[in-house]
Amino acid sequence: MKKTRTRIGLAELEINNLLKKEEYKTLFKHRLLKKDSILYTDNISIVIIKNGSAKLSFFEDGDEFIIYHVLKNNITILDDSCALEFLEDSEIYSIELEDEKDIFQSFEFNKITNEALIEIILLQRKIIKSILYESAKGRIANFLIELAKEQDLKQNSYYYVFLPFSVKVLSSFVGLKRQSASTAFNELIKDDIIRKLTAHEFLIIDFNALQSYTNYNCLD
């Protein structure tokens, strides 16, 4: 099955052998960051998470919007509009865009970076489309379908979804206030479109009904 770059965790890339060790040391800034550390930048930068994980987010007036999670062996872009918060102790390499001419002499690094950035752009367009054109239920439905696609699990012919965080965190992924997200989520449960098994486990009972709230088919 092809690895999919999703908002829960961008699929691991083959970055270990893209550059020589001395190239990482001379071209990149190396950092060891503790859990809950937050990385900001004034200039556009490429960040490679060698070990650990982080979330890329916008912050505005005390509200957080989570763009996506980034797992180890991944590349992401950081600029002054967002922040990278580390979910565990992590090791990273970073380089500002204006300083990266030399690394693009490596064909493989160039190829992997371009592919990763194209997929990130497409993912962000899906996020924008959902926020602009979908209701609260539509945003949550879209997110659950995306999660079902990533996890690819079934129980008694129903899609099984493990939600690895609270509805409060979910609201930060879909751009809703916590109360709005909670209300929409509970209505989906009440209508038996999704069924709650435990605090973090759900079955999608009526996939077509869930999908009807969205503006496009995430499982195409």
UniProtKB/TrEMBL annotation:
Residues 134-208 form the HTH crp-type domain. Keywords: DNA-binding, Transcription, Transcription regulation. InterPro entries: cNMP-bd_dom_sf (IPR018490), HTH_CRP (IPR012318), RmlC-like_jellyroll (IPR014710), WH-like_DNA-bd_sf (IPR036388), WH_DNA-bd_sf (IPR036390). It comes from the Bacteria. One of its GO terms (molecular function) is DNA binding. One of its GO terms (biological process) is regulation of DNA-templated transcription. This is Cro/Cl family transcriptional regulator.
